[in-house]
Amino acid sequence: MNRVTTSKAEAPADDADNHRRASVDSPDDALGTIEETDRESDDARSSGVRSLDRPFIVLRVLRENRAPMRLTEIATAAKLHLATTQRLVNLLIKHGYVERDGVEYTLGLVSLIDGFTYLLTNNLTQIAEPILLDLNASTKLTAMLSVRHDLTQVRVLRILSSPSPRYQATIGEQVPLTLGGARVLAAGLSPRDVERLLEGVEKIPFASGRVLDRQEFIESLSAIRERGYALGQGQGEDGSVSVAVPVMSREGDVIAALQVSGHIEDIPFDVDSLVKELQRASAAITRRIP
Predict the structure, then answer these.
(1) 4-57 pLDDT per residue, tens
(2) Domains and CATH numbers, the chain
């Protein structure tokens, strides 16, 4: 009868193999190892994303401040360490996005170049420009096209009336969605974004002296959606009037606001014909969108 025997020298190796298999095959241990690795990967990714965000945070701080800033002011507003801010600012200076004058910093010339390139290459502005020229010629009013950036309106096209208005909203200017024609874009917001827009806001004052409370503003957005246009009187400048309609995508989403503006005596008492002119122009833009 043959016996299968195991030498004493082989036994420790088998025990070691069994131990390794047990440690690997244990579901709890394996899951713990995977979760730990995933957490480390997520932490690394989050850290990397935060590092990539920082130059844009500095640029946003300089843009929103609209005045030269010292390094300590930038660091405080951006919530960054001073040494980190210095490195970021030096990098942005190197690439032309920030300029230094003594101890103060501003946005650099490259920001303007980028904005000009945006206007040249953006599909919507290319489509809309000839339509705005026709709208300006037919109404004799300043015609403008604006798009939404988060909770603000940014003007991307403007054809001035003759004579030019006293207040000239410039290209690239950010306007709160609570004022004038910008409310057309606010009317296209989701309920959650409307809440963000009105966070901490209880009263909305206009240049005319009129004040809307929070609920009145929300109700005004419903009225704009229902009638299809926004009429602003003295909301940005006393005596000014604007009429704006939404520009829709082919899918039915609000992608821009088309607006004409002028002084109160330049706007016909009955705005229905003006609204129809705006809506025809808006529909023409939508038809040309690929």
Answers:
(1) 444 444 444 444 444 444 444 444 444 454 445 445 444 444 444 467 899 999
(2) 11-110 (1.10.10.10), 122-288 (3.30.450.40)
